Amino acid sequence: METKIRQADESDKKVFIDYSIKLSKFNRVNHNNDSKYDDYSLVIKAIKKKAEETFKYRNENTLILIAEIENKPVGYALGRIYKEDETADNGTGEMGLLDELFIEDRARGAGLGQKLLNEAIKWMKEKGIKRIKLHAYSWNDNAIKLYERNGFKEYVVSYETFI
Ligand SMILES: CC(C)(COP(=O)(O)OP(=O)(O)OC[C@H]1O[C@@H](n2cnc3c(N)ncnc32)[C@H](O)[C@@H]1OP(=O)(O)O)[C@@H](O)C(=O)NCCC(=O)NCCS
Q1: Does residue 82 belong to any structural domain of this protein?
Q2: What is the mean pLDDT of residues 94-121?
Q3: Per-residue pLDDT tens over the stretch 26-75
Q4: Residue 79 backbone phi and psi in degrees, to 5
Q5: Residue 76: is it exposed, middle or buried by C-beta count within 10 angstroms (0-12/13-18/19+)?
Q6: Which atom of ligand 1 is least distant from the CA of 115?
Q7: Which domain, by its residues, includes 45?
Q8: Given 45, 99, 104, 124, which residue has the most CB atoms within 10 angstroms?
């Protein structure tokens, strides 16, 4: 099985947008029912628009990686470099953000998520980045396991309640 991680090119626009939507659908299915009161078709529309803009305006601070098996896409990663808010009392300055990561269900467990993560970290290191942030939902055991195994540590916990 030949696997490959490569940077996206102009022809990957549709692949990137489709995967952004698939990642959202994966999340939606796994959220508790209390969160699903809204019109999800509008959310999908907004995600599509955001992905289109991310792709169109990608620059030297944007990384879009495509994971392939036998030259066919099976997943992607979106990384960014951004300036942390100046009011951030736990450290300001330039940060890496691993914004999105997704491997198709059928291709999971074969090490491609790890490879995407490795490539994203390598790219950020080469850009002089010393700190990488990412966000994971608390139910996402597979992702959390992957990140913690790679040295990521929890630094914020978000809470919600319905009133
Ligand atoms: C998280 C994710 C990107 C990992 O990608 P992957 O290619 O399956 O990961 P790898 O093969 O590199 O293995 C990393 C870990 O994934 C988990 N894993 C293994 N098989 C898996 C499977 N069939 N399905 C899901 N996760 C699996 C394991 O925890 C594995 O660690 P282990 O080797 O110690 O058992 C992938 O499961 C995914 O796309 N999930 C849905 C989207 C998602 O959660 N994205 C992250 C948002 S924060």
Answers
A1: yes
A2: 97
A3: 999 999 999 999 999 999 999 999 999 999 999 999 999 999 999 999 99
A4: -120, 155
A5: buried
A6: 12
A7: 3-149
A8: 124
Q: Measuring from atom 8 of ligand 1, which residue has the nearest CA?
A: 108
pLDDT confidence of 1, banded at 50, 70, 90?
Answer: confident
Total domain count, the chain: 1
Q: What does the DSSP assignment read for 65-110?
A: EEEEETTEEEEEEEEEEEEEPTT-TT--EEEEEEEEEEE-GGGTTS
* Residue 161 counted as domain residue: no
Residue 144 confidence (pLDDT)? 98
For ligand 1, the distance from its centroid to the CA atom of residue 105, given in whole angstroms, is 9
Using most ligand atoms within 8 A of CB, pick from 74, 108, 132, 150 the residue to mutate for ligand 1: 108
159 inside domain: no
Spacing, Cα 154 to ligand 1 middle (Å)? 18
Domain with residue 126: its CATH number is 3.40.630.30
This prediction has a pTM of 0.95
Tell me whether residue 10 is in a domain. yes
State the average pLDDT over residues 105-109: 96
